[in-house]
Amino acid sequence: MGQVPKKAYGIVGSGKAAKHIKYYFQCLNILIKSWARTENIKAPSEVLADCDTILLLINDSEIESFIAQNPFLKEKEVVHFSGSLVVPGIQSTHPL
Questions:
Q1: Rounded to 5 degrees, what angle do the CA atoms 66, 50, 14 make?
Q2: How confident is the model at residue 96, as a pLDDT?
Q3: pTM over the 0.90 mark
Q4: What pLDDT is stored for residue 40 in this prediction?
Q5: Positive or negative CA dihedral for 20, 26, 32, 34?
Q6: 3-state secondary structure labels for all residues of 32-93
C-alpha cells in the first residue's frame, strides 16, 4: 500500500504574519510552499500548483486584485487573513 501524500498549504506574502504562520507550520511539520512578489520570479500558479489550500497573508487592499489576477485560485480553498474585508466565495480568519 502506498503512502498518502501530505496536504500542502500555500502561503502568499512575506510580512510578519506570513513569517509567523510559516514558522508555526514548520514547527508542526506541515508541508508548505510560499510565494511573495518580492521573492519569486515564477508565477504564483507555478509555485502553488500542488497546494490544496492557499493562505493569503497580504495587504487588505491587494487581496481582491490578487484573487482576480490568479484564476487558478478558483480550484483551491482560499483563506485571507483580513479582519475587515469580506470577499464572496473566499474564507477569512483573523487569528492575531
A1: 45
A2: 57
A3: no
A4: 79
A5: positive
A6: EEEECCCCCCCCHHHHCCCCCEEEECCCHHHHHHHHHHCHHHHHCEEEECCCCCCCCCCEEC
